[in-house]
């Protein structure tokens, strides 16, 4: 890795959690320089503007979650176990173990909905990729007869995503982690009923 690549990665490592917690509008250049200890000139020597840092920070946060999910999915033998990986990873995400500030997809989708078209497009692409990955797993489960053929893979994928993201929103908004556990218990029952 070149010195420039190392500096760029350092900036992302230090600022990605800030963008995830404070959002695009809430994150200032001063936040970026304070987190990195670098000057504005150093930041803009590696990124052309705050937009570029924000987009790269979203990609960085998303990559961290997706790589953890895929690593754990590859350890599972049964499709239902693979689907339940999302519950387990997101439980760690809420505790800040996986990503400070929670789910970058949910945070960015809400933050950039009307304010930043490029970030909104990245969040939409992430949700589409997530939906497609779950659909692949469900289709594999149907092919292996682990999941009944009368199930709609897209409906299952959307339900899983909605329950996870809705559970995060409700538990964080109410400051009641017990709500998250109740919703995830319902999701586990739903996944296990797919046989």
Automatic annotation (TrEMBL):
Q: A GO molecular-function term, please?
A: DNA binding
Which residue intervals define the domain HTH tetR-type in the entry?
5-65
Q: Which keywords describe this protein according to UniProt?
A: DNA-binding, Transcription, Transcription regulation
Q: Which domain of life is it from?
A: Bacteria
Residue ranges of the annotated DNA-binding region, renumbered to this chain: 28-47
Q: Which InterPro entries match?
A: Homeodomain-like_sf, HTH_TetR, Tet_transcr_reg_TetR-rel_C_sf, TetR_C
Which PANTHER family did the record assign? HTH-TYPE TRANSCRIPTIONAL REGULATOR LMRA, TRANSCRIPTIONAL REGULATORY PROTEIN
Q: What is this protein called?
A: Transcriptional regulator, TetR family
Organism of provenance: Pedobacter suwonensis
């Amino acid at each position: 890795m070149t010195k420039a690549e190392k500096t760029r990665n350092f900036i992302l490592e230090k600022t990605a959690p800030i963008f995830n917690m404070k959002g695009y509008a809430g994150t200032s250049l001063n936040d970026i320089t304070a987190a990195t200890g670098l000057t504005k000139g150093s930041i803009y020597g590696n990124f052309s503007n705050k937009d570029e840092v924000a987009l790269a920070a979203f990609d960085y946060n998303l990559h961290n979650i997706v790589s953890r999910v895929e690593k754990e999915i590859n350890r599972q033998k049964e499709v239902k176990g693979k689907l339940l990986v999302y519950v387990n990873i997101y439980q760690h995400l809420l505790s800040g173990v996986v990503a400070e500030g929670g789910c970058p997809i949910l945070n960015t989708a809400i933050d950039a909905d009307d304010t930043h078209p490029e970030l909104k497009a990245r969040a939409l692409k992430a949700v589409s990729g997530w939906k497609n990955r779950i659909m692949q797993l469900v289709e594999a489960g149907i092919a292996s007869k682990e999941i009944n053929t009368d199930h709609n893979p897209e409906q299952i994928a959307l339900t899983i995503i909605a329950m996870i993201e809705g559970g995060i929103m409700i538990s964080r908004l109410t400051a009641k982690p017990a709500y998250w556990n109740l919703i995830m218990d319902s999701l586990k029952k739903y996944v296990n009923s797919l046989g």
